[in-house]
Fold this protein.
Amino acid sequence: MSLDARILAALRAAGTTAVSGAELAQQAGVTRAAIWSRIQELRVLGYDISASPHLGYRLISTPDVLHADDLLARLGQTRVIGRDIRVFRETTSTNDVVEKLAADGVKEGVVVFAEAQSKGRGRLGRRWVSPPGKGLWFSILLRPALRPVETTQLTVATAIALARAIRQTTRLQPQVKWPNDILVKHRKVAGILMEMAAETDVVKHVILGIGIDVNLSSNDFPAEIKEHATSLRIERSHAVNRAELAVAVLRELDDDYHRLRQGQFEAVAEEWTRACSTIGQMVAVRMGETVVRGRAEALDTDGALVVRTQHGRPVRIVGGDVTLEKGATAT
Ligand code: BTN
Protein backbone atom coordinates (compact mmCIF):
# COMPACT_ATOMS: atom_id res chain seq x y z
CA MET A 1 0.00 0.00 0.00
CA SER A 2 1.32 3.47 -0.84
CA LEU A 3 1.93 6.07 1.85
CA ASP A 4 -1.15 8.10 0.80
CA ALA A 5 -3.29 4.97 1.02
CA ARG A 6 -1.96 4.16 4.50
CA ILE A 7 -2.55 7.68 5.76
CA LEU A 8 -6.10 7.80 4.40
CA ALA A 9 -6.91 4.31 5.71
CA ALA A 10 -5.66 5.22 9.20
CA LEU A 11 -7.54 8.53 9.28
CA ARG A 12 -10.72 6.93 8.01
CA ALA A 13 -10.49 4.12 10.58
CA ALA A 14 -10.06 6.70 13.38
CA GLY A 15 -13.27 8.50 12.34
CA THR A 16 -13.70 11.64 14.46
CA THR A 17 -10.69 10.84 16.63
CA ALA A 18 -7.44 12.59 15.72
CA VAL A 19 -4.35 10.52 14.91
CA SER A 20 -0.96 11.94 15.81
CA GLY A 21 1.79 12.41 13.22
CA ALA A 22 4.04 10.20 15.34
CA GLU A 23 1.50 7.37 15.27
CA LEU A 24 1.00 7.65 11.51
CA ALA A 25 4.77 7.77 11.00
CA GLN A 26 5.31 4.72 13.15
CA GLN A 27 2.54 2.70 11.42
CA ALA A 28 3.95 3.53 7.99
CA GLY A 29 7.63 3.25 8.94
CA VAL A 30 8.47 6.79 7.74
CA THR A 31 9.36 10.12 9.39
CA ARG A 32 6.80 12.63 10.70
CA ALA A 33 8.09 15.07 8.09
CA ALA A 34 7.20 12.60 5.34
CA ILE A 35 3.66 12.31 6.76
CA TRP A 36 3.33 16.10 6.88
CA SER A 37 4.47 16.44 3.29
CA ARG A 38 1.96 13.81 2.03
CA ILE A 39 -0.84 15.48 4.02
CA GLN A 40 -0.02 18.76 2.23
CA GLU A 41 -0.29 16.94 -1.12
CA LEU A 42 -3.60 15.34 -0.16
CA ARG A 43 -4.94 18.78 0.80
CA VAL A 44 -3.96 20.09 -2.64
CA LEU A 45 -6.05 17.27 -4.12
CA GLY A 46 -9.02 18.50 -2.07
CA TYR A 47 -8.89 16.28 1.02
CA ASP A 48 -9.91 18.39 4.01
CA ILE A 49 -7.56 17.23 6.79
CA SER A 50 -7.43 19.20 10.01
CA ALA A 51 -4.17 19.38 11.94
CA SER A 52 -3.86 20.20 15.61
CA PRO A 53 -0.40 20.43 17.20
CA HIS A 54 -1.52 18.52 20.30
CA LEU A 55 -3.98 16.00 18.92
CA GLY A 56 -2.90 15.27 15.36
CA TYR A 57 -4.74 14.84 12.07
CA ARG A 58 -8.43 14.28 11.29
CA LEU A 59 -10.08 13.58 7.95
CA ILE A 60 -12.94 16.07 7.68
CA SER A 61 -14.09 15.44 4.11
CA THR A 62 -12.97 13.92 0.83
CA PRO A 63 -13.29 15.54 -2.60
CA ASP A 64 -15.34 14.10 -5.45
CA VAL A 65 -12.29 12.94 -7.36
CA LEU A 66 -11.10 9.42 -8.03
CA HIS A 67 -7.71 8.89 -6.43
CA ALA A 68 -6.10 5.47 -6.87
CA ASP A 69 -4.54 5.39 -3.40
CA ASP A 70 -7.77 6.42 -1.75
CA LEU A 71 -9.72 3.75 -3.63
CA LEU A 72 -7.13 1.15 -2.61
CA ALA A 73 -7.28 2.30 1.00
CA ARG A 74 -11.08 2.13 1.12
CA LEU A 75 -11.20 -1.23 -0.65
CA GLY A 76 -8.66 -3.02 1.51
CA GLN A 77 -7.64 -6.57 0.64
CA THR A 78 -9.49 -8.28 -2.22
CA ARG A 79 -8.90 -11.68 -3.83
CA VAL A 80 -8.34 -10.51 -7.42
CA ILE A 81 -10.31 -7.47 -8.55
CA GLY A 82 -8.83 -4.14 -7.46
CA ARG A 83 -5.46 -5.29 -6.19
CA ASP A 84 -4.03 -2.75 -8.65
CA ILE A 85 -5.99 0.45 -9.41
CA ARG A 86 -4.99 3.20 -11.84
CA VAL A 87 -6.81 6.47 -12.45
CA PHE A 88 -6.47 8.67 -15.56
CA ARG A 89 -7.77 12.17 -15.98
CA GLU A 90 -8.82 11.38 -19.56
CA THR A 91 -8.46 8.43 -21.93
CA THR A 92 -9.92 7.47 -25.28
CA SER A 93 -11.60 4.42 -23.75
CA THR A 94 -10.53 2.67 -20.55
CA ASN A 95 -10.92 -0.60 -22.48
CA ASP A 96 -8.08 0.59 -24.77
CA VAL A 97 -5.82 1.24 -21.78
CA VAL A 98 -6.52 -2.20 -20.33
CA GLU A 99 -5.93 -3.80 -23.73
CA LYS A 100 -2.40 -2.39 -23.64
CA LEU A 101 -1.87 -3.60 -20.07
CA ALA A 102 -3.03 -7.06 -21.14
CA ALA A 103 -0.51 -7.05 -23.99
CA ASP A 104 2.21 -6.08 -21.50
CA GLY A 105 1.36 -9.15 -19.43
CA VAL A 106 -0.11 -7.31 -16.43
CA LYS A 107 -1.79 -9.63 -13.89
CA GLU A 108 -5.57 -9.99 -13.85
CA GLY A 109 -7.50 -7.81 -11.45
CA VAL A 110 -6.07 -4.43 -12.49
CA VAL A 111 -8.75 -1.72 -12.71
CA VAL A 112 -8.41 1.41 -14.82
CA PHE A 113 -10.69 4.40 -14.13
CA ALA A 114 -10.89 7.59 -16.17
CA GLU A 115 -12.50 10.82 -15.05
CA ALA A 116 -13.48 11.32 -18.71
CA GLN A 117 -13.33 9.33 -21.95
CA SER A 118 -13.01 11.01 -25.33
CA LYS A 119 -14.04 7.86 -27.23
CA GLY A 120 -16.12 5.89 -24.76
CA ARG A 121 -17.86 3.06 -26.56
CA GLY A 122 -20.93 0.99 -25.85
CA ARG A 123 -22.18 -2.29 -27.25
CA LEU A 124 -23.03 -2.72 -30.92
CA GLY A 125 -20.69 0.10 -31.96
CA ARG A 126 -22.59 2.77 -30.03
CA ARG A 127 -20.98 5.83 -28.46
CA TRP A 128 -20.86 6.02 -24.66
CA VAL A 129 -21.10 9.55 -23.32
CA SER A 130 -18.49 9.96 -20.55
CA PRO A 131 -18.32 13.56 -19.27
CA PRO A 132 -15.61 14.44 -16.70
CA GLY A 133 -16.24 13.80 -13.03
CA LYS A 134 -19.85 12.72 -13.44
CA GLY A 135 -19.73 8.98 -13.79
CA LEU A 136 -17.73 5.87 -13.16
CA TRP A 137 -15.99 4.85 -16.38
CA PHE A 138 -13.68 1.92 -15.77
CA SER A 139 -12.33 -1.37 -17.11
CA ILE A 140 -11.05 -4.51 -15.46
CA LEU A 141 -8.59 -7.06 -16.81
CA LEU A 142 -9.45 -10.70 -16.17
CA ARG A 143 -7.78 -13.91 -17.26
CA PRO A 144 -10.50 -16.46 -16.49
CA ALA A 145 -10.24 -20.19 -17.13
CA LEU A 146 -13.36 -20.14 -19.30
CA ARG A 147 -14.09 -21.09 -22.90
CA PRO A 148 -15.19 -18.17 -25.10
CA VAL A 149 -18.81 -19.44 -25.09
CA GLU A 150 -18.85 -19.36 -21.30
CA THR A 151 -17.81 -15.73 -20.94
CA THR A 152 -21.43 -14.53 -20.89
CA GLN A 153 -21.23 -15.83 -17.30
CA LEU A 154 -18.96 -12.87 -16.58
CA THR A 155 -21.45 -10.34 -17.92
CA VAL A 156 -24.21 -11.94 -15.89
CA ALA A 157 -22.07 -11.90 -12.72
CA THR A 158 -21.02 -8.30 -13.36
CA ALA A 159 -24.62 -7.20 -13.85
CA ILE A 160 -25.78 -8.53 -10.48
CA ALA A 161 -22.69 -7.23 -8.71
CA LEU A 162 -23.47 -3.79 -10.13
CA ALA A 163 -27.11 -4.04 -9.10
CA ARG A 164 -26.13 -5.02 -5.53
CA ALA A 165 -23.56 -2.22 -5.21
CA ILE A 166 -26.02 0.39 -6.50
CA ARG A 167 -28.69 -0.90 -4.10
CA GLN A 168 -26.31 -0.77 -1.10
CA THR A 169 -25.00 2.69 -1.91
CA THR A 170 -28.16 4.45 -3.04
CA ARG A 171 -31.07 2.34 -1.73
CA LEU A 172 -32.52 2.43 -5.24
CA GLN A 173 -33.90 -0.87 -6.58
CA PRO A 174 -32.06 -1.54 -9.84
CA GLN A 175 -33.15 -4.21 -12.27
CA VAL A 176 -31.09 -6.11 -14.79
CA LYS A 177 -32.01 -6.33 -18.45
CA TRP A 178 -30.28 -9.16 -20.30
CA PRO A 179 -27.44 -9.27 -20.92
CA ASN A 180 -25.81 -6.15 -19.60
CA ASP A 181 -28.06 -3.23 -18.82
CA ILE A 182 -28.83 -1.98 -15.34
CA LEU A 183 -32.10 -0.10 -15.16
CA VAL A 184 -33.73 2.07 -12.55
CA LYS A 185 -37.46 2.61 -13.10
CA HIS A 186 -37.11 1.18 -16.62
CA ARG A 187 -34.34 3.58 -17.63
CA LYS A 188 -30.72 2.61 -18.15
CA VAL A 189 -28.16 3.77 -15.53
CA ALA A 190 -25.27 1.46 -16.31
CA GLY A 191 -23.92 -0.82 -19.01
CA ILE A 192 -21.19 -3.39 -19.49
CA LEU A 193 -18.98 -3.81 -22.54
CA MET A 194 -17.10 -7.09 -22.48
CA GLU A 195 -14.26 -7.51 -24.96
CA MET A 196 -11.99 -10.52 -25.14
CA ALA A 197 -8.99 -12.07 -26.81
CA ALA A 198 -9.25 -15.78 -27.49
CA GLU A 199 -7.33 -18.43 -29.37
CA THR A 200 -9.38 -21.29 -30.77
CA ASP A 201 -11.21 -22.48 -27.68
CA VAL A 202 -9.20 -20.72 -24.97
CA VAL A 203 -9.78 -17.26 -23.54
CA LYS A 204 -6.54 -15.29 -23.25
CA HIS A 205 -8.03 -12.35 -21.46
CA VAL A 206 -11.31 -10.52 -20.93
CA ILE A 207 -11.79 -6.78 -20.54
CA LEU A 208 -14.87 -5.83 -18.58
CA GLY A 209 -15.73 -2.21 -19.36
CA ILE A 210 -18.29 -0.70 -17.03
CA GLY A 211 -20.04 2.64 -17.31
CA ILE A 212 -22.27 3.97 -14.53
CA ASP A 213 -24.17 7.23 -14.99
CA VAL A 214 -23.72 8.49 -11.45
CA ASN A 215 -24.12 12.27 -11.25
CA LEU A 216 -25.13 13.23 -14.80
CA SER A 217 -27.99 15.65 -15.19
CA SER A 218 -30.53 15.17 -17.97
CA ASN A 219 -28.72 17.79 -20.11
CA ASP A 220 -25.62 15.58 -20.15
CA PHE A 221 -27.43 12.93 -22.20
CA PRO A 222 -27.67 13.36 -25.97
CA ALA A 223 -31.21 13.86 -27.27
CA GLU A 224 -31.41 10.40 -28.84
CA ILE A 225 -31.00 8.56 -25.52
CA LYS A 226 -32.55 11.03 -23.08
CA GLU A 227 -35.83 9.18 -22.97
CA HIS A 228 -34.21 5.83 -22.12
CA ALA A 229 -31.33 6.91 -19.89
CA THR A 230 -31.10 8.21 -16.37
CA SER A 231 -28.51 8.73 -13.63
CA LEU A 232 -28.38 7.80 -9.97
CA ARG A 233 -28.41 11.49 -9.13
CA ILE A 234 -31.58 12.09 -11.12
CA GLU A 235 -33.30 9.12 -9.47
CA ARG A 236 -32.18 10.00 -5.95
CA SER A 237 -32.50 13.78 -6.31
CA HIS A 238 -29.03 14.26 -4.84
CA ALA A 239 -25.43 13.50 -5.74
CA VAL A 240 -23.90 10.10 -5.08
CA ASN A 241 -20.34 9.69 -3.77
CA ARG A 242 -18.49 8.11 -6.72
CA ALA A 243 -15.58 6.70 -4.73
CA GLU A 244 -17.93 4.97 -2.29
CA LEU A 245 -19.89 3.44 -5.15
CA ALA A 246 -16.72 2.42 -7.01
CA VAL A 247 -15.44 0.56 -3.97
CA ALA A 248 -18.79 -1.18 -3.42
CA VAL A 249 -18.81 -2.31 -7.07
CA LEU A 250 -15.26 -3.66 -6.93
CA ARG A 251 -15.97 -5.53 -3.70
CA GLU A 252 -19.15 -7.12 -5.06
CA LEU A 253 -17.44 -8.00 -8.33
CA ASP A 254 -14.54 -9.59 -6.52
CA ASP A 255 -17.03 -11.77 -4.60
CA ASP A 256 -18.88 -12.81 -7.75
CA TYR A 257 -15.69 -13.51 -9.67
CA HIS A 258 -14.67 -15.73 -6.78
CA ARG A 259 -18.04 -17.53 -6.98
CA LEU A 260 -17.50 -18.14 -10.71
CA ARG A 261 -13.98 -19.42 -10.12
CA GLN A 262 -15.40 -21.85 -7.57
CA GLY A 263 -17.81 -23.17 -10.21
CA GLN A 264 -20.86 -21.56 -8.58
CA PHE A 265 -22.45 -20.04 -11.66
CA GLU A 266 -25.80 -21.61 -10.75
CA ALA A 267 -26.07 -19.49 -7.58
CA VAL A 268 -25.07 -16.38 -9.54
CA ALA A 269 -27.67 -17.18 -12.22
CA GLU A 270 -30.41 -17.66 -9.60
CA GLU A 271 -29.69 -14.23 -8.13
CA TRP A 272 -29.61 -12.74 -11.62
CA THR A 273 -33.00 -14.25 -12.44
CA ARG A 274 -34.51 -12.66 -9.31
CA ALA A 275 -33.13 -9.22 -10.27
CA CYS A 276 -33.99 -9.57 -13.93
CA SER A 277 -36.70 -7.63 -15.70
CA THR A 278 -36.37 -9.77 -18.84
CA ILE A 279 -37.26 -13.28 -17.64
CA GLY A 280 -40.92 -14.13 -18.08
CA GLN A 281 -41.46 -11.27 -20.56
CA MET A 282 -42.26 -11.31 -24.25
CA VAL A 283 -39.16 -10.00 -25.99
CA ALA A 284 -37.74 -9.24 -29.41
CA VAL A 285 -34.02 -9.93 -29.76
CA ARG A 286 -32.23 -8.25 -32.64
CA MET A 287 -29.00 -9.89 -33.81
CA GLY A 288 -27.89 -8.03 -36.91
CA GLU A 289 -30.59 -8.66 -39.51
CA THR A 290 -32.27 -11.44 -37.54
CA VAL A 291 -35.03 -10.88 -34.99
CA VAL A 292 -36.14 -13.62 -32.60
CA ARG A 293 -39.48 -13.07 -30.84
CA GLY A 294 -40.78 -15.05 -27.93
CA ARG A 295 -40.92 -15.45 -24.17
CA ALA A 296 -37.63 -15.06 -22.29
CA GLU A 297 -37.61 -18.22 -20.17
CA ALA A 298 -34.31 -18.64 -18.36
CA LEU A 299 -30.56 -18.42 -18.37
CA ASP A 300 -28.72 -21.56 -19.39
CA THR A 301 -25.51 -22.79 -17.77
CA ASP A 302 -23.31 -20.61 -20.02
CA GLY A 303 -25.30 -17.46 -19.24
CA ALA A 304 -27.16 -17.47 -22.58
CA LEU A 305 -30.80 -16.32 -22.62
CA VAL A 306 -33.29 -19.01 -23.61
CA VAL A 307 -36.20 -17.58 -25.59
CA ARG A 308 -39.19 -19.80 -26.47
CA THR A 309 -40.62 -18.72 -29.80
CA GLN A 310 -44.34 -18.79 -30.64
CA HIS A 311 -43.72 -22.16 -32.33
CA GLY A 312 -42.58 -23.57 -28.99
CA ARG A 313 -38.96 -23.82 -30.05
CA PRO A 314 -36.27 -22.80 -27.46
CA VAL A 315 -33.60 -20.52 -28.95
CA ARG A 316 -30.31 -19.78 -27.15
CA ILE A 317 -29.32 -16.12 -27.38
CA VAL A 318 -25.69 -15.25 -26.70
CA GLY A 319 -25.67 -11.64 -27.94
CA GLY A 320 -27.94 -9.00 -29.37
CA ASP A 321 -30.28 -6.25 -28.38
CA VAL A 322 -33.29 -7.21 -26.28
CA THR A 323 -36.43 -5.10 -26.19
CA LEU A 324 -39.58 -5.87 -24.29
CA GLU A 325 -42.58 -6.35 -26.57
CA LYS A 326 -45.09 -3.81 -25.34
CA GLY A 327 -48.65 -5.04 -25.16
CA ALA A 328 -47.64 -8.69 -25.62
CA THR A 329 -48.76 -11.10 -22.90
CA ALA A 330 -46.41 -13.70 -21.55
CA THR A 331 -47.96 -17.14 -21.19
C1 BTN B 1 -23.35 -0.55 -23.16
O1 BTN B 1 -24.30 -0.63 -22.41
O2 BTN B 1 -23.51 -0.35 -24.37
C2 BTN B 1 -21.97 -0.74 -22.61
C3 BTN B 1 -21.39 0.55 -22.10
C4 BTN B 1 -19.99 0.40 -21.51
C5 BTN B 1 -19.34 1.71 -21.20
C6 BTN B 1 -18.03 1.54 -20.48
S1 BTN B 1 -17.39 3.05 -19.84
C7 BTN B 1 -15.89 2.27 -19.45
C8 BTN B 1 -15.57 1.33 -20.59
N1 BTN B 1 -14.87 2.06 -21.64
C9 BTN B 1 -15.60 2.15 -22.74
O3 BTN B 1 -15.24 2.72 -23.79
N2 BTN B 1 -16.76 1.53 -22.59
C10 BTN B 1 -16.89 0.94 -21.28
Residues 93-95, 117, 120-123, 126, 128, 130, 137-139, 180-181, 191-193, 209-211 surround biotin (CB under 6 Å). The chain has a mean pLDDT of 93. DSSP finds ten helices and 14 strands in the chain. The radius of gyration is 22 Å.
